[in-house]
Structures are given as structure tokens and as C-alpha cells.
What does this fold into?
Amino acid sequence: MTEQPHIEVDGLSIPLLGFGTWMLEPEDARRMVAEALRIGYRHIDTAWIYKNEAAVGDGIRDAIEAGHVTRDEVWLTTKIWVAHFHHDDLLAQAKESAASLGFTPDLLLLHWPKKTPSFAETLGALNAAKDQGLTRSIGLSNFPSAEFRQAQGLSKAKLVTNQVEYHPYLDLRPLLKAADELGSSITAWSPLAQGKIADDPVINAIGRAHGKSAGQVTLRWLIQQDVIAIPRTTKVSRAEESFDIFDFELSDDEMAQIHALARPDGRLGDWLDPDFKWDQTG
Ligand SMILES: NC(=O)c1ccc[n+]([C@@H]2O[C@H](COP(=O)([O-])OP(=O)(O)OC[C@H]3O[C@@H](n4cnc5c(N)ncnc54)[C@H](OP(=O)(O)O)[C@@H]3O)[C@@H](O)[C@H]2O)c1
It folds into this structure.
């Protein structure tokens, strides 16, 4: 088994490379989660709104039954949908998600920030879910820096990650700084820019120097920043390729060349509530 890097947050050890399941139909989710665990991934990302939590749980059980993993070797994340942010609704979804998965998740995230109900109510409920044993840890998704800091101020427990869009075409410096100052972490969604990195001349040139693909270089660029990356694919060969990133290293110059690809219109999935604004950069 390949040694794979982890990030330590609040006494927890989170594998830096995970497997995403957004848009995977239940059949593909079950098949690919089981394949990912066979390949060596030890971190799986899902959400209530993906409508595949039960299939993800089945995929994990398939891998356990095949002897590829044990439950405690897998980091499992799911998310509370924005329609469930009132106290009782949040706890009800946390119970439903755990029941659908058939496992207590390791991490439960608030999927997107929302003005109402108040952050105080929602963070209180998220902490209650942790206190009631419905998740091992809690965190956020898609929170800009100011709201990330505000939410941590209202949360008894450490918010162990903020899962946001991040890939070579976005500058994430303010949020990376906030995560560092809060003792938290960043998880990159759409780490491969939904496949757009495949044709990038700069990333491909760097890849040729290492005998690696553009996807492998991009994932390596993320984990070398201590950012958790959760690529998604329906193809076993691509899942294998994306896992094969632990035997090379990008130089400081190569890291800087990829950072320089960030551009103002690089965002792919902007579903942020208009009550909030993304961090301003450069
Ligand atoms: N918290 C949130 O709000 C949020 C939002 C979006 C996503 N996420 C999470 O983040 C995960 C990853 O994000 P994502 O699914 O948007 O994007 P991604 O991993 O950047 O890209 C996945 C897409 O790129 C293609 N692809 C994968 N590897 C490739 C390669 N080497 N070359 C070319 N194309 C490639 C895949 O196609 P094939 O299937 O054909 O390989 C798939 O269509 C999601 O699955 C989900 O778990 C979270």
C-alpha cells in the first residue's frame, strides 16, 4: 500500500487525497467508492443533496467485505443541505444521513452559508449533532473568509475544514490564510477544474518533465499546499491515475507557475447566496 499524506487538524488525521461523488448516480457511486477504496483512497466525500448517501455506504461495505479496508481506515464526509439549517431540521438530517450511509460520518459540513436562520442557531445545532454522536467532527463548505471566522467564533468545536472550489484557475490566498490562522484546513472541490486542466499547456509541460498527466500535476499542486483534494470520476483508470501522485514532487518554481494560472473569471460553480461575497483577490 502506497504511503499517503494526511493533514492533522484538531487531533484528527485527514487523508489529503479523497474521492468525490457529486453527480454520481447511485449505481456509479457504489461501484466507484468500492473501486476507490480498493485502489487505496481512504477518504470519501458525499452530501445529502447528492442523493447517493445510501449507495456510498454500500460501496464502503462492499470494500470492507472484500477485505480492502476496515471502517476506521476510511474518512467519510457528508453535508447538511441548506434547507435543513434550523436546529431540529439539522439534527433530523444528521440522523437521516447516518442512517442512509449506515455509518456515523467522520465529518459533517454545512453545505453553503445562509443568512437565515442565524449562524448562531445553525452552528449550535451542528455542535449538538457532534455532541449527540451523529458525527465525529464538524466543518463548513463554501464559506468566504469573514463568515469562516465568524462561524468558528460561534462554534464550541473546531471547524476542521472549509470545503470550497479550488484549482489552478482560482486564487485562494485569503481563505488559505484564514484556515491557517484558525487552525483549520481547506478542502478543494472541483480540484481538476471539472477536467479543464487536461488541455492546459503549462500544466502539461510540467507533467512531461515528471512523466505525469495534467491531472496528476494538479492534484500534487494541491496536496503540496496541504490542501485536501477530492477528485471525482466515473472511470477506474482515472481514479487509479489520480491516486498515483505520491512518488514525485513539484519544485517551488513549478508551484509558482501553476499559481500564476489563476484568473478573475476562473470560478466554475458560483451558487453563493447573494447575501455573501467571495473574498477579493489581487
Ligand atoms: N461542497 C460543494 O459545494 C461541492 C461542489 C462541487 C463538488 N464538490 C465535491 O468535490 C468533488 C469533486 O468536484 P467535481 O466533481 O466538480 O470536479 P473534478 O473532480 O474537478 O472533475 C470531475 C470531472 O472531470 C472529469 N475528469 C476527471 N479526471 C480527469 C482528467 N484527468 N482529465 C480530464 N477530465 C477529467 C470527470 O470525468 P470522468 O467521469 O469522465 O472521468 C468529471 O466529469 C465532487 O464530486 C464533490 O464530492 C463539492
Q: What stands out?
A: The chain has ten helices and ten strands.
